Amino acid sequence: MWELIQSNRRKSLVLFISMGVTLLLLGYFFGSAYYPDGGGFIGIFFAFVIWGILSLISYFSGSKILLAVSGAKEVTKEVHPQLFNIVEEMKISASLPAMPKVYIINEAAPNAFATGIKPENSAVAVTAGLLARLNRDELQGVVAHEVSHIVNRDVMFMTFSGIMLGSIVLISEVFLRSLWLGGGRYSSKSSKSSGQGQMIIMIVAIVFAILAPILAQLLYFAISRKREYLADASAVRYTRYPEGLASALEKISDSSIDLKTANKVTAPMYIVNPLKPKGQKLTNLSSTHPPISERVRILRSMSGGANYVDYQNAFNKIKRSKSPIIPSSGLADQTPIGLKEASITPVALGLNKQTKRDTGDIMMKVNNYSFINCSCGLKIKIPPDYKKTELFCPRCGTKHSLI
After folding, report:
1. Which of 78, 89, 120, 146 is catalytic?
2. Does 107 qualify as catalytic in the annotation?
3. Model pTM greater than 0.90?
């Protein structure tokens, strides 16, 4: 939907500029605090250079950095054929120009995210825990949600904004820590009024250093939350099965396993906030995502069809408001899109023994382990650095050739 993409670009541009201005103000105040005679402009220069360098890095290598930080590894179709088939289906349904690369994260916590500067060069990353817990319909809902972020151009600006957020936090931390090493320099002027002026600038700089990262995060999170609704709506349109995504969101949010590789910069990119403290609710301002229970209720209220109009109606019903979450061009298309029936697939319930075994097997495949199914029923897992040409089954003693 062209208008949706353009709307996202405009909002992302506002976010990008706002965080850029915040970064430049940081440079100005910090430079003025240390060098009152022209130091502010020097600070702006260095802040701009840092911003420019990190923006270039994010454009050319941002996706690789996010995937590496998240511990994601690119896999082939042989590792998980069902996942590849679903990504191919959603690529066709969403009319993506190229097949997204597929990554698996060696984590037992269920979650997923997408990244990529352009739709032609994008990636979908899911955790091993997600693959082990969800049935096909649920996994399709999650992949459709992430593909929606790619189509709507969310991931491009989330990558840029994440880099800028990191820049703001970095500069603020450097300034605050440097205060412990002796504070700022005073102007060559020794007048009392000059000293008082610099003290005021120093106080403003300290306050700004504390508040700037917080304000930048709130801007970052606010844009992220609204995009989750839009991605949910698009995902239902691609799959024609809102229950699949709703059930997946419940399973992911019910997990008590921490996603160890997630951090404040990458958290907004995941389908469900991975940083929620156990037993603690996040406020709307500090949360990277809308409440899961609300998203699930909206999806399950879509009984009339899978069009954008159906999602907007369900959204208005649950939120009790008429605020348009879908652009007018999407609402203008009222072509009926029927809901499909659920597939008959096994359902993974909870973290049972089989789920744990499946998660472990997926992690081993990602790490290039090979498997041999012995006639006695034992699955033998062979590490990638195993050098011998044969091995014996530890249960029945059968010899297996590895050549």
Report:
1. 146
2. no
3. no
